[in-house]
From TrEMBL:
Domain spans labelled GHMP kinase N-terminal: 137-220
Pathway membership, UniProt: Isoprenoid biosynthesis; isopentenyl diphosphate biosynthesis via mevalonate pathway; isopentenyl diphosphate from (R)-mevalonate: step 1/3
PANTHER family: MEVALONATE KINASE (PTHR43290:SF2)
GO biological processes: cholesterol biosynthetic process; isopentenyl diphosphate biosynthetic process, mevalonate pathway
Protein name, entry field: Mevalonate kinase
Lineage, uppermost ranks: Eukaryota, Metazoa, Ecdysozoa, Arthropoda, Hexapoda
Keywords noted in UniProt: ATP-binding, Cytoplasm, Kinase, Lipid biosynthesis, Lipid metabolism, Magnesium, Metal-binding, Nucleotide-binding, Steroid biosynthesis, Steroid metabolism, Sterol biosynthesis, Sterol metabolism, Transferase
Pfam families, per the entry: GHMP_kinases_C (PF08544), GHMP_kinases_N (PF00288)
């Protein structure tokens, strides 16, 4: 096997967050920040070593131990085609509980649970890729090192967990010869990557809608409906946006649970909000598809700004704003920019819509300065660019 690097982008939800959990459509796009994974073969070491730079933690397992785990699993579930994901995850949890008690660095930090989930994903996705390999009885023969780092802030709504899952799935499926560098972007291979990344999302999130792993695998901009799949939007070019980090951490799973409680308390009322968001997504799609074709772009941009505002007000209505987010909205509005929550809300990121040639506009630099002076993180990027990328090192 050769050494390679995977780059899996993070994402934003343009419209339809939360509503998507209730089977309404969402519009999602990739951003220009990513998780990177470097895979290097260690011909002389019989060890699989993992370095999680963002979590400042390492984990290793001997190739022999990992292969023994796989042999035991094959003996216990002797199927011709691997389809035992549920059983595999259970066995991985038991196996890792044994190993991690001895291994986990910083064992008593509050990060322990986070780190455990990240390692379960690695073990499970590697085992799944090997067990389902098209090469009969595929075996790991040499050690290798994974170095995983990210440009995404973790736990902030930019899909760091999905992009982590996509990077792992792409690396392990390539390693286990499900595809090669020439065809990893074929639709059936991206679907396989996205499905395994969804497995990782289930470990980290509980019950994700699937929108994050889908967009982080396929890239671009897409319309997604839970349980029904997605359609890619044919955009003219990526959209300029400003990502503003409120620096308020929150857990997506917790916010989704709070919104569920609200929707159970006031089903008719909250359903009306989901219906409004669905109508908004339907209005937005043709605008995103033709924006940038130079015909009345100013007018289209103003309509998109309005939709940003309406969507944000609907999200406020379900209680996923936060005083720090409100501060960002008002700084942006004062300078003439429209912004909205993206993802779960209650903290995390706000996205601000940026016009063409924004960098030549003095007001943009004033906005950036004011947001930074107020203590927020600011990063200008695009929405709807390239997706997953793998290259030989
Ligand atoms: N680079 C990484 N290395 C290891 N684990 C990671 C990495 N990025 C994300 N994770 C895992 O994902 C978890 C964060 O997932 P969470 O869903 O809370 O945030 P998010 O994906 O950034 O936000 P959202 O799902 O709202 O877009 C971390 O606790 C960790 O387990
Ligand atoms: C809040 C939510 O709709 C978006 C998370 O990026 C949750 C989900 O879709 O799983």
């Amino acid at each position: 096997m050769f050494n390679f690097q995977v780059r899996a982008p993070g994402k934003i939800i343009l419209h339809g967050e939360h509503a998507v959990v209730y089977h309404k459509p969402a519009l999602a796009a990739v951003v220009g920040l990513a998780t990177t994974l470097q895979f290097s073969m260690d011909e002389n070491k019989a060890l699989i070593s993992v370095h999680l730079e963002a979590l400042n933690n390492n984990f290793s397992v001997e190739v022999k131990t990992f292969n023994e785990f796989l042999s035991k699993f094959r003996a216990k579930y002797p199927t011709e085609r691997f389809n035992n994901t549920v059983q595999l995850l259970e066995e991985v949890r038991v196996e890792l509980a044994k190993q991690q008690e001895e291994q986990l660095e910083n064992n008593n930090t509050p990060k322990k649970q986070q780190i455990q989930k990240s390692f379960i994903s690695i073990y499970y996705l590697l085992a799944g890729a090997v067990l389902s390999s098209p090469v009969e009885r595929f075996k790991i023969t040499n050690g290798f090192t994974l170095r995983i780092d990210t440009e995404l802030n973790i736990g902030s709504g930019l899909g760091s967990s999905a992009s982590y899952g996509v990077a792992l799935a792409a690396a392990f499926l390539l390693y286990a010869q499900h595809f090669d560098l020439s065809n990893y972007r074929d639709p059936q291979n991206l679907a396989m990557i996205s499905n395994w990344a969804f497995e990782s999302e289930r470990i980290i999130h509980g019950s994700p809608s699937g929108v994050d792993n889908t967009i982080c695998s396929y890239g671009g901009m897409l319309r997604f409906v839970k349980g029904q799949g997605f359609q890619t939007l044919n955009i003219v070019r990526p959209l300029n946006i400003l990502l503003v980090d409120s620096k308020v951490k929150r857990s997506t799973a917790d916010i989704v649970a709070k919104v569920r409680h609200l929707s159970e308390s006031f089903p008719e009322l909250i359903n009306a909000i989901w219906d409004a968001i669905e109508a908004l997504v339907t209005e937005a799609i043709p605008l995103y598809e033709i924006f940038g074709n130079s015909k009345d772009d100013g007018e289209k941009f103003e309509k998109l700004e309005r939709l940003f505002q309406i969507n944000n007000d609907l999200l406020k209505a379900i209680g996923v704003s936060h005083p720090k987010l409100e501060q960002i909205f008002s700084i942006a509005y004062k300078r003439g920019f429209f912004s909205k929550i993206t993802g779960a809300g209650a903290g995390g990121y706000v996205i601000v819509l940026l016009p063409d040639n924004y960098a030549k506009n003095e007001v943009f630099w004033k906005l950036k300065e004011e947001l930074e002076a107020a203590g927020f993180g600011v990063h200008s990027t695009t929405a709807g660019g390239d997706g997953l990328f793998i290259e030989k090192l």
